[in-house]
Amino acid sequence: MIEDHKGDPRWPQNYTLEQVHAIQRKALLLDIAKKYTTFFRVENTGDAVKNIGLCPYEAGSVKQAFTVDVTKQLYHCFSCGAGGDVFSLVMDMEKVSFDEAMDILEKFSRKEKA
């Protein structure tokens, strides 16, 4: 429960779980990840569609090791080991709390609709 994590910046403080899930459905990981990196190829393995590009965690990296699984809405870098979902990517890239990441994703989702 969210109440168990009061004061923890990695957990929502000002949002309900319903609001978190709504943003998670609207803010597609691949669209957000494209703000931070370049993708070069798509692999379709039958049960998953994966986009592969440069790792945004490793400045100057030329390894195509960063993978976004469009089906599962998760990312993983096979070079540095970073991984997570749309929230952790925004939190890490922008150096913000969960609630601040929610604000960013909410604004991005509204902009994409326009």
Describe it.
- It is globular, with a radius of gyration of 15 Å.
- Strands 1-2-3-4-5 form a five-stranded antiparallel beta sheet.
- α3 packs across α4 (98-113).
- The chain has helices at residues 17-26, 29-33, 86-94, 98-113; strands spanning 39-44, 49-53, 66-69, 74-77, 83-84.
- It is built from four helices and five strands, in the order ααβββββαα.
- The model has no long low-confidence stretch (mean pLDDT 87).
- A hairpin with a 5-residue loop joins β4 and β5 (83-84).
Enumerate the strands of the largest sheet in spatial order, edge to edge or round the barrel. 1-2-3-4-5
CATH superfamily: Zinc finger, CHC2-typedomain
CATH architecture: Alpha-Beta Complex
Query: What portion of residues belong to β-strands?
Result: 15-25%
Number of helices: 4
**Main sheet attributes: strand count, strand direction, barrel closure:** 5 strands, antiparallel
CATH topology heading: DNA Primase, Chain A
The end-to-end span amounts to 34 Å
Give the overall shape, derived from the CA principal axes: globular
Rg is 15 Å
Average pLDDT reading = 87
Helix content: 25-40%
Order of helices and strands: HHEEEEEHH
Low-confidence stretches: none
Number of strands: 5
CATH class: Alpha Beta
Kindly name the structural category. Answer: alpha+beta
SSE order and pairing:
Elements (H helix, E strand, L loop, with lengths): L16 H10 L2 H5 L5 E6 L4 E5 L12 E4 L4 E4 L5 E2 L1 H9 L3 H16 L1
